[in-house]
Design a protein that fits this description.
two-stranded antiparallel ribbon; 23% strand; globular; single chain; alpha+beta; 3 helices
């Protein structure tokens, strides 16, 4: 196991041909940025990129985020 294997903790809620839904319960990156009073920087650097990445990854799946722990 690599050190970064523990950076995210979560569970797959739905995994079908059209939907991949993951619920993350812990994020080491968010914790680290919040502790440095830089949650906004963490979100901009690590979380926000999920939107364009997902759009390029597949046109058939929409990306929705209920909330983020970074900010």
């Amino acid at each position: 196991m690599k050190d970064w294997d523990n950076s995210l903790t979560g569970e797959i809620l739905t995994d079908t041909e059209n939907v991949l839904e993951i619920k993350y319960t812990e994020c080491l990156y968010a914790k680290t940025f919040r502790e440095a009073d830089a949650g906004d920087i963490g979100y901009a650097a690590l979380c926000y990129g999920d939107y364009p990445w997902t759009k390029q990854f597949t046109q058939s799946k929409a990306y929705k985020r209920k909330n983020t722990d970074a900010g």
